[in-house]
Design brief:
The protein has about 375 residues and is of the alpha/beta class. The protein is about 35% helix and about 30% strand. Strands 1, 2, 6, 7, 8, 9, 15 and 16 form an eight-stranded mixed beta sheet that branches. Strands 3-5-4-11-12-13-10-14 form an eight-stranded mixed beta sheet.
Length: about 375
């Protein structure tokens, strides 16, 4: 049901994982598709604050090149500040987001997507059955809009969509610390990533992490934003833990960056041919903060929803079908995890109980089987 008078069938704001996969799927299905990205991507991509740990299954699914992987890991080491520690087995790898996102946007381009970088959105308005989009470089028309421009989505702000509740936003701080590969392996192990918990003496609702890459340790901290009093001082408390202090001793600070991530759904994720995907919709694991695979899947599901509703002439069902398809794939579990998150972080004993269970079970299994 394409309108040949429009510039594009599908217009995507944001060239992250959700936007790039949405673009790839749209182009492969014959939709004239454009992605705009506010930043300059260039040959090396653009830096994004992110631990960068992804599961081995995702690496294999997208055939991610081995030479783009920073480090493989076999376990997630779970530390509580009172000294209790457990080890959760799981194969994965750490990646740099600029390299990963560039790989995905290149896939979209190869599928026929037009990518326009260094082109921030200025205005978007509904005109009858299409949208007019204005950027600093041009004006475009399109039938469908994919908002994949992150938690603070300019697209959805301009359209007047409600923002997240504060309890559904995590403030994170990331430091990229340069250090030799040999020292990383001596201090953190050859094939492990590390997460740190402690409601009373570290982070009320959230956790911190040390994720080693080839010659860098990503040092991260995240707390529910309305509980943050002094983020720099609270981050220092984490850095001063003996294990952490030893791990980063002698390292060189390369990047310091705060960032927001959602841990609960935006009050709405669809309206009038506009789909919120990934962080823009709050489609993130509320317990772990994992967002990359859900961004990619939600981008794919948005396009598949458009295609199926056009084919069945059920355009008035786009929103309900989108959410139903998300629910069927993973959203029902994420909603249950959001409820469970409040229970997990009630106190340190409930948190430690969850960490003990998490050592042997997937978090989705713990929640859906009500093991906590």
């Amino acid at each position: 049901m394409k309108n040949l008078n429009l510039d594009y069938d599908v217009f995507i704001i944001g060239a992250g994982p959700g936007g790039s996969i949405a673009g790839k799927i749209a182009a492969e299905n014959g939709y004239k598709t454009c992605i705009i990205e506010k930043d300059i991507i260039g040959d090396k991509g653009r830096y994004k604050a992110c631990g960068g740990a992804i599961a081995l299954e995702l690496i294999e699914e997208i055939d991610y090149p081995e030479d783009k992987i920073s480090r493989y890991f076999e376990s997630l080491e779970l530390h509580h500040v009172d000294g209790e520690r457990s080890s959760k087995k799981g194969k994965g790898a750490t990646i740099w987001r600029n390299v990963f996102d560039k790989f995905l946007s290149d896939m979209a381009i190869e599928s026929g997507v037009l990518l326009k970088e260094d082109e921030p959105l200025i205005k978007i308005e509904k005109r009858d059955d299409f949208y007019r989009v204005s950027t600093k470089k041009g004006k475009y028309t399109a039938k469908y809009i994919i908002a994949s421009d992150g938690v603070t989505s300019t697209t959805l702000k301009l359209l007047g969509w409600p923002y997240f509740e504060k309890k559904n936003i995590i403030l994170t701080i990331t430091k990229e610390m340069k250090i030799s590969s040999d020292i990383i392996e001596q201090k953190l192990g050859k094939d492990a990533i590390h997460a740190f918990f402690g409601i009373k003496n570290l982070i009320p609702i959230g956790y911190a992490w040390l994720f080693p890459k080839a010659e860098t340790i990503t040092v991260g901290w995240g707390n529910q934003i309305n509980l943050v009093k002094n983020s720099r001082e609270e981050f220092k408390k984490f850095e001063n833990l003996p294990f952490v202090r030893n791990a980063i001793k002698g390292s060189e600070l390369k990047i310091f960056k705060p960032h927001l991530i959602p841990v609960g759904l935006r009050p709405k994720i669809y309206e009038d041919n506009v789909f919120a995907v990934g962080d823009a919709g709050g489609i993130v694991d509320p317990i772990s903060g994992k967002g990359i695979p859900y961004a990619m899947m939600s981008g794919q599901i948005a396009i598949e929803t458009i295609k199926s509703c056009e084919k069945r002439d059920k355009m008035n069902k786009l929103g309900s079908v989108y959410e139903k398809n998300l629910d069927r794939k993973f959203l029902r579990v994420l909603k249950a995890k959001r409820i469970a998150r409040d229970q997990i972080f009630q106190n340190d004993e409930s948190l430690k109980n969850f960490l003990r269970l998490w050592e042997k079970h997937r978090s989705s299994e713990i929640v859906m089987k009500k093991l906590i």
